[in-house]
């Protein structure tokens, strides 16, 4: 793997950019690995990277049924923030945001992390009161957040329609929040994981598992059987299916969340704005497209597409809030299959199957958690005990009753 | 947009309805004797079927009746619907 730098661009320019080495290797699977991770999305690749780079576990494979980064890692809307209400969530997502702050250097890959602020606006007095409580709770968690009045909101979003159908009463902003390039995060982790010796095996769907005495012995895949000491599922919406192969049942429901982008325009909107009440959020990508989404399609789905009425609700809210966007054409609409836990918080760690670890329940907000999810799951797998930040997010909380009810998990009320 | 056949009103647009989850969950018969794990199973654990799925819908902006729908979670195709308690129909 060659180091990316201004010098390497210059050097490769002299040879017509024909001699760049490939970013990651494309090996055939070995028969056995210390750790086998299913799912080469952000979470699976990050877990492999932190295992190999920081936990000294080098003999690692990441299996992917399609191409890497092609699931929810390429379907989210790239928002990074840590403005959660509960201290457990705040601590975990703040760790992720701090890792994002150095991720470009860490991975030697430009993840285009831009701390342009995440602005949440309130459309009623009641919501304003709740937001004041929420913004204060974030500060109590040691994380930045500031209440804004209408005039201050206009500074961040000059084209906003403050006197819309449900007039904006105020809001709050996490200035350190923002967005990054989702493909770059997956590619960056893949490249460094591969450099650290991880085998990333694409087009290698897991079709079955060989188990004995509540242990997994090996995985049956499209490229033959692969045995391992420890296994992890990082497969988002399909966690229930994979867990079922190991005889494990989970408190997960899969639903579709849609994202959509407009045609690209000149820079016009330089923050990430959300309204939970009329239910839309919007930001502008570096390519100029306005990236927007709203509510999920609230019925079980594995279809990677949603209903038109959900899109219409989102567009109606968006043009009410930002009338200047009303004549833009939508270019693409898609959906990701989200693994929802009842309390909209993740489930990461050990399972009743002795050598199986899961990383699921990311629901509609897994992208922002990729660095911390990978870091903490790698620690958990290497030491066979939950990372301190993950202790509240264990599977047993559903029987102990210690749910972490983040209705705020995506800043919008899914 | 799904077109959902309400067994009482006929085929209507999805936005008249709300989704009620898997229809397989059964309220436990002896709630006093359940362990925490059994409560968790009833409240939170789901089959999360990929494929043909038995589920509940309620016609919120119509007759307000709950009923069963068989729908494919991969294609969204609705195979049929029936009143609660009925076997076919």
Mean pLDDT of chain A: 95
Task: Return Rg of chain A in Å.
Answer: 21 Å
- For the record, the CATH architecture of chain B stands as 2-Layer Sandwich
Distance between the termini of chain A: 42 Å
Summarize the structure.
Chain A has helices spanning 6-14, 42-54, 87-101, 103-107, 125-140, 150-156, 182-195, 239-245, 308-321, 370-383, 397-400, and strands at 32-38, 60-63, 79-80, 118-122, 146-148, 170-174, 178-179, 199-201, 206-212, 215-221, 224-233, 252-262, 272-275, 280-284, 290-293, 297-300, 330-341, 347-350, 356-360. With 414 residues, chain A is of the alpha+beta class.
Describe this structure in words.
The complex is a heterodimer of chains A (414) and B (89). Chain A has 414 residues and is an alpha+beta fold. Chain A folds into two domains: 30-78 and 182-251 and 342-409, FAD/NAD(P)-binding domain (3-Layer(bba) Sandwich); 116-176 and 254-341, D-Amino Acid Oxidase, subunit A, domain 2 (D-Amino Acid Oxidase, Chain A, domain 2). Helices cover 29% and strands 25% of the residues of chain A. Chain A is built from eleven helices and 19 strands. In chain A, strands 4, 5, 6, 12, 13, 14, 15, 16 and 17 form a nine-stranded mixed β-sheet that branches. In chain A, strands 1, 2, 8, 9, 10, 11, 18 and 19 form an eight-stranded mixed β-sheet that branches. In chain A, strands 3-7 form a two-stranded antiparallel sheet. In chain A, helix 2 (42-54) packs parallel to helix 7, helix 2 packs across helix 10 and helix 3 packs across helix 10. The longest helix of chain A is centred in the first third of the chain and has 16 residues, at 125-140. By secondary structure, chain B is mainly β. Chain B has a single domain (1-25, 46-89), classed as Folate-binding superfamily (Folate-binding fold, 2-Layer Sandwich). Helices cover 9% and strands 37% of the residues of chain B. Chain B contains one helix and six strands. Chain B has one helix at 36-43, and strands at 3-6, 10-13, 18-22, 52-58, 66-72, 78-83. In chain B, the strands form two sheets. A four-stranded antiparallel β-sheet of chain B has the order 3-4-5-6, with no helix packed on it. The longest helix of chain B has 8 residues, at 36-43. The radius of gyration of chain B is 15 Å and the shape is globular. In chain B, 18% of the residues are buried. At the A-B interface, strand 12, strand 16 and helix 11 of A face strand 3 and helix 1 of B.
């Amino acid at each position: 793997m060659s180091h990316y730098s201004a010098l390497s661009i210059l050097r490769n320019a002299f040879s017509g950019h024909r001699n760049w080495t490939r970013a990651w290797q494309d090996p055939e699977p070995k028969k056995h690995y210390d750790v086998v991770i299913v799912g080469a999305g952000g979470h699976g690749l990050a877990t492999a990277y932190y295992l190999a780079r920081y936990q000294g576990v080098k003999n690692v494979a990441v299996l992917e049924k399609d191409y890497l980064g092609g699931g929810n890692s390429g379907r989210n809307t790239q928002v990074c923030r840590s403005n959660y209400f509960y201290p457990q969530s705040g601590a975990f997502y703040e760790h992720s945001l701090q890792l994002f702050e150095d991720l470009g250097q860490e991975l030697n890959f430009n993840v285009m992390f831009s701390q342009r602020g995440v602005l949440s606006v309130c459309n009623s007095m009641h919501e304003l009161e709740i937001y004041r409580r929420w913004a204060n709770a974030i500060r109590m968690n040691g994380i930045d957040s500031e209440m804004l009045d209408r005039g201050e909101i206009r500074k961040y979003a000059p084209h906003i329609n403050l006197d819309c159908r449900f007039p904006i009463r105020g809001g709050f902003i996490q200035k350190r929040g923002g967005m990054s390039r989702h493909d770059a995060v997956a590619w960056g982790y893949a490249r460094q994981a591969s450099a650290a010796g991880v085998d990333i095996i694409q087009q290698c769907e897991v079709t079955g598992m060989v188990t004995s005495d509540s242990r997994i012995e090996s995985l049956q895949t499209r490229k033959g059987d692969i045995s391992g000491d420890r296994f992890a599922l990082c497969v988002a919406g399909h966690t229930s299916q994979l867990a079922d192969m190991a005889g494990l049942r989970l408190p997960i429901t899969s639903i579709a969340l849609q994202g959509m982008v407009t045609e690209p325009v000149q820079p016009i909107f330089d923050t990430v704005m959300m309204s939970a009440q009329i239910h839309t959020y919007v930001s502008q990508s570096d390519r100029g497209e306005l990236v927007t989404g709203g509510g999920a399609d609230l019925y079980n789905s594995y279809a990677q597409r949603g209903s038109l009425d959900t899109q219409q609700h989102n567009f109606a809210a968006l043009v009410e809030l930002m009338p200047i966007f009303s004549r833009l054409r939508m270019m693409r609409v898609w959906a990701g299959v989200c693994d929802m836990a009842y309390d909209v918080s993740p489930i990461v760690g050990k399972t009743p199957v002795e050598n199986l670890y899961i990383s699921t329940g990311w629901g509609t907000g897994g992208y922002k958690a990729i660095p911390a999810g990978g870091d903490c799951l790698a620690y958990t797998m290497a030491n066979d005990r939950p990372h301190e930040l993950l202790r509240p997010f264990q599977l047993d909380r559903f029987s102990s009753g210690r749910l972490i009810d983040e209705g705020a998990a995506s800043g919008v009320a899914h | 947009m799904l077109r959902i056949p309400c067994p009482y009103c006929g085929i209507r647009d999805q936005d008249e309805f709300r989704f009620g989850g898997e229809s397989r969950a059964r309220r436990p018969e002896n709630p006093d004797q359940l362990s925490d794990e059994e409560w968790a199973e009833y409240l939170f654990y789901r089959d999360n079927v990929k494929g043909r799925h038995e589920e509940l819908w309620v016609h919120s902006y119509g007759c307000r009746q709950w009923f069963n729908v068989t729908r494919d979670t991969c294609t969204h195709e609705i195979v049929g619907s029936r009143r609660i308690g009925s076997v076919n129909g």
